[in-house]
Write a structure and sequence with these properties.
The complex is a heterodimer. Chain A is an alpha+beta fold. Chain A has 30 helices and 22 strands. Helix content of chain B is 56%, strand content 9%. The termini of chain B are far apart. The chains are: A alpha+beta, B mainly alpha. Chains A and B meet through helix 2 and helix 3 of A and helix 3 of B.
């Protein structure tokens, strides 16, 4: 094959239009090609030819494009040509014509395209977040067949998947037909030691077959065998991909060797695939091993249960079957199961944070509103444009163009604009996603599955395209309809001596501007609420002082510290060392830090109130030393702190929060009252009342806290807190040493200032609030722009009228009043509608962010003032310009 | 007539066309520039320059006869026009004026 590339020649032919030039260039290339064939062989010569030809096409093509010789023909010429030609020829002409009218006013088109692109990318960004985090955070093989089976009390409104007892789980596993595979897991904080720096790794105890049930194939090694679920044979571990890379250098021969977890040797049997961190950022998995007694337990319900539906079984069938099974268990074991109901949910829904979806919907709604505002804005601009072109349309209609044709062309213009906007929105969306990715604090990411799927993908593009098409219909239809319903004679006459645009058109444009003001106000109000909620979550009074406090968190392993005495000794040793650090003014310990990610709640039975198990309410349960209150400046309101006086041998005591005392013993002296935290537990006496603290902003108005002394009940979860003089993080190494002195094998899981921990907790909310704020600001700018463009246009159209008025003796202020009155009417109407909308949104927000926001009338009033001022300013500027017109010029100008 | 300014590459193209006299078409022009300056010349750039020079009136072109080695396509020959020659002289003169007195430095090897 010695011929040159036909494809390349065809491309060149397309680019080089002049026939003489084309022959010259093609011939030159063929000549050189023919010479090359002899030297380097036909294949390489052909490739050379192709490369050169395409290179020339690009260079020469751009060159020709940049120096266009003949100006494009005017629209009249096109209109005159219309009747002839085929359907496709007509379409090409229409597209070309529409493109020309888009580029005819580049400024206006740019404004439209940018406006739409901003709104589209806000929508796409949020849709992408929603898709990755809420709709499809898990993408295992066949995740749609996975379910979470949970139990709940009939009164419980939210679902806690961690709610199944081992014995119940065993029975379901044996009896269920709709679910073919089962898995269960429980939390495990694994201490990795035997390496240079010991470390606490987020881990889970999982029933053998966990990975198979989830449909996850391990790239290295195997899933756990079923006999590894027995105590004694359970020391096997699957390592997370990140941990494997980070701590073991991604060595493939790690499988089969042992690592030390909680001080015991575990054989590594497998490595999880990259990105697999289910559940909740897990980095190490080991078999859930229970003895016969453990499997018979119905009281402790802390397993989370996952099932894979059998072929053909539906969620509803599984729900029905499980309900029957649980009904039977309720009758068979009334003492423990009397209050359990079955709840089967899809895996994605069951694993989701119950609050997240609500937030996302608010957010998506905000973005949708923004898109509507943008559409209203663009429709307004196009309408303005339309009345400019009313005369052009009239001429074309008079020359015989069909109304269909004009309608189609106007729509086509809209379509071209939205195509451009879609193209622009892709990089904007990518930037938005990049920003989102950096905006969420890293510790939070562990709790946000699906984060790694956040990207611009085909679904997202499709969704943007669909949105853009919908937007086109909204914003281009109105001008198109108006353009084609014009009366030819009227328009021609109007064009000849334009006075004001037709009444109908002005009404439509005013309505659009009003809608924009209303929507913008509602959006601003809504995002203001979330912003203030986020501000309060980070900066609000929480009942404790987070300044200058350093927190070292760790979990003692069960193996070495199963004896409470050893735990107490460990705590005492560490606290003693910490108190000796010079910059430390107070040191204490707690089982759970306030406003942290984890919580421990127990049922609360006050003495003298005969409660059944189902009726007892929950209270936050803390094990603390008295130094904890001092370090966090939590006030003692009555009685005394629990301290070293209270020993395992002395009566059990507790300090309770003020709200608990007020709610259970209203108007009475709470000191000396007794309560239990388990139906069969011991009586605990209240010795002191502490100030309320906020652990969770969403529930803090109902939350109760019980503090038990570590000297009586030492926990495994420990958070040492020290109040420091000066920068708290400067003491990090001192704290490390203090812990290492008590037990060198014991890793610190997290070492950070309390302030940082509290901010991280509020990070998600702050992120959403900021993103909403951005959306609302764009909306504000768009709607002010909308009013401005409307007023500028209307005023410009009335120039002549204004000239006449001024010639007849109207003063400057009268002219300004005349034109501003219109803007004022729009603003007032828009504000009223917007206020009503805001009220509805306020109610919605309150249900989602209960405890954090209150609908604030002052806030609403303030926003109305700001928006009205902006809108009036936008209306005033063109009015002032109108008032400066010299009447002579105004009258002459037509 | 307003003076025509030549870019460095356009200058080289015009000089090559002068050298080649009647045989000046794109292929030998490119080869000549490459061999004399020792720098590679992209074909696209050459055609662009030829087009631009023709647009400025520095070059005139005519079509030759179609030949077999070119797959039946004709050559497009270029000749330097009077205006082109004037532009060449102006550019050459300007450069010569600028270099006068620097020969010792510029011609050192």
């Amino acid at each position: 094959m010695t011929s040159p590339s036909r494809f390349a020649e065809r491309v060149l032919t397309l680019v080089v239009r002049d026939p003489e030039w084309r022959d010259g260039v093609l011939g030159d290339l063929r000549e050189e090609h023919a010479r090359l064939v002899g030297r380097v062989g036909p294949g390489r010569a052909r490739r050379w030819h192709q490369r050169q030809a395409l290179g020339i096409a690009v260079r020469y093509g751009t060159h020709r494009l940049l120096r266009r010789r003949t100006p494009p023909p005017r629209w009249l010429a096109v209109a005159a040509q219309e009747p002839d030609g085929t359907w496709t020829a007509g379409l090409t002409r229409d597209v070309r014509y529409a493109w020309r009218s888009v580029t005819h006013r580049p400024g206006l088109s740019a404004v439209i395209v940018i406006t739409l692109a901003l709104a589209l990318s806000a929508n796409s960004t949020i849709f992408s977040l929603m898709d990755a985090l809420v709709l499809r955070p898990y993408r295992f093989e066949g995740v749609e067949h996975l379910v979470i089976v949970a139990t709940r009390a009939p009164t419980q409104s939210f679902l806690d998947p961690q709610s199944v007892s081992p014995a119940d789980f065993r029975e379901w596993q044996e009896q269920s037909a709709t679910i073919e595979r089962w898995a269960a897991y429980d939390w495990w904080s694994a201490n990795l030691s035997g390496v240079d720096i010991p470390e606490q790794v987020p881990g889970f105890r999982v029933s053998p077959g966990f990975f198979t049930t989830l449909g996850v194939a391990l790239p290295l090694g195997r899933d756990f065998h079923s006999d590894e679920g027995q105590p004694g044979r359970h020391r096997r571990a699957v390592l997370g991909h990140d941990l494997w890379v980070r701590r073991f250098g991604a060595r493939a021969d790690i499988v089969g060797t042992t690592v030390r977890l909680d001080g015991e040797p575990y054989e590594v049997v497998g490595i999880a695939p990259a990105g697999f961190q289910t559940p909740l950022g897990a980095q190490v998995w080991s078999p859930l091993a229970l003895d016969a007694k453990g499997w018979a337990d119905r009281r402790v319900n802390d397993l989370t249960v996952i099932g894979r539906l059998a072929d053909g079984a539906t969620l509803e069938q599984a729900q029905l079957e499980l309900s029957t099974l649980i009904d039977r268990q309720r009758q068979d074991h009334p003492e423990t199961n009397a209050n359990r109901m079955a709840e089967v949910q899809t895996f994605t829904k069951g694993m989701a944070d119950p609050g997240a979806a609500g937030f996302m919907i608010v957010w998506q709604a905000a973005a949708g509103l923004l898109l509507l505002i943008a559409c209203a804005n663009i429709a307004n601009l196009l309408l303005a444009r339309g009345s400019e072109r009313a005369q052009e349309y009239a001429v074309r209609l008079a020359l015989g163009a069909s109304r269909h044709r004009l309608f189609g062309q106007t729509l086509l213009e809209g379509l071209i604009l939205s195509l451009l906007a879609t193209a622009l929105s892709v990089p904007l969306t990518a930037a938005g996603l990049g920003l989102s990715r950096t905006a969420i604090p890293a510790p939070l990411l562990r709790f946000v599955p699906g984060w790694e799927f956040l990207s611009v993908d085909l679904r997202l593009m499709l969704m943007t395209a669909v949105l853009a098409a919908a937007a086109t219909l909204v914003f281009a239809l109105i001008p198109a309809l108006q353009a084609t319903h014009a009366h030819v004679a009227d328009s021609l006459r109007q064009g000849a001596r334009s006075v004001t645009s037709s009444r109908g058109r002005r009404w439509m444009r005013s309505a659009l501007a009003t809608a924009q003001v209303a929507l913008a106000l509602a959006l601003l109000f809504g995002s203001g609420l979330v912003l203030s909620a986020a501000h309060r979550a980070t900066n609000g009074a929480m009942g404790f002082d987070k300044q200058d406090v350093l927190v070292a968190q760790l979990v003692l392993p069960d193996r070495n510290y199963s004896d409470p005495t050893t735990r107490r000794q460990f705590i005492t040793k560490v606290l003693d060392r910490m108190q000796q650090i010079p910059a430390v003014t107070a040191a204490g310990v707690t089982s759970h830090i306030p406003a942290g990610f984890s919580n421990h709640r127990r049922q609360f039975w006050p003495e003298g109130q005969d409660l059944r198990e189902s009726e007892a309410l929950y209270a936050d349960y803390r094990r603390v030393s008295s130094g904890y209150f001092t370090a966090l400046k939590i006030p003692l309101l009555q009685g005394r702190w629990a301290d070293d006086r209270d020993q395992p041998t002395t009566p059990a005591v507790a300090v309770v929060s003020q709200r608990l005392a007020d709610d259970y013993w209203p108007g009475q002296d709470p000191l000396g009252r007794r309560f239990k935290v388990a139906a069969d537990g011991e009586w605990i006496t209240v010795v002191g009342i502490a100030g309320n603290i906020v652990h969770n902003w969403f529930t803090h108005r109902r939350d109760h806290t019980v503090y038990r002394p570590v000297t009586q009940e030492a926990s495994y979860d420990l958070a040492f807190v020290v109040k420091t003089v000066g920068e708290p993080s400067a003491l990090a190494s001192d704290l490390r040493q203090a812990v290492a002195a008590a037990d060198p094998d014991e890793p610190i899981a997290s070492l950070a200032p309390l302030e940082v921990l509290v901010d991280e907790r509020a990070g998600g909310l702050a992120f959403i609030a900021n993103a909403l704020g951005v959306v609302a600001l764009i909306a504000l700018v768009l709607s002010v722009m909308g009013i401005y463009s409307l007023m500028a246009f209307v005023t410009a159209q009335r120039t002549q009228e204004i000239g006449v008025r001024m010639a007849l003796g109207a003063g400057r202020w009268q002219v300004i009043r005349l034109t501003t009155a219109h803007a004022l009417r729009i603003t007032v109407a828009g504000s009223l509608i917007g206020a009503a909308l805001s009220f509805v949104i306020g109610q919605m927000m309150q249900s989602i962010l209960s405890g954090l926001v209150a609908s604030n009338l002052w806030q609403l009033a303030g926003l109305v003032v700001v928006l009205a001022a902006a809108a009036l300013a936008a209306g005033y500027l063109p009015a002032r310009r109108a008032a400066r017109i010299d009447p002579i010029n105004a009258l002459r100008e037509t | 007539m307003a003076p025509i300014y030549l870019g460095e590459f356009e200058y080289a193209v015009l000089l090559a066309a002068l050298h080649l006299e009647q045989a000046a078409y794109a292929v030998p022009i490119r080869e000549l520039i490459e061999s004399r300056t020792g720098r590679p010349v992209a074909r696209g750039a050459l055609y662009t320059a030829l087009d631009r020079l023709e647009g400025k009136g520095c070059l005139r072109s005519r079509m030759g006869d179609p030949t077999d080695e070119r797959g039946g396509k004709a050559r497009r020959y270029f000749t330097v026009s009077a205006a082109g020659l004037k532009a060449l002289k102006a550019t050459h003169g300007a450069l010569a004026n600028m270099t006068r007195g620097l020969e010792t430095i510029l011609e050192q090897s």
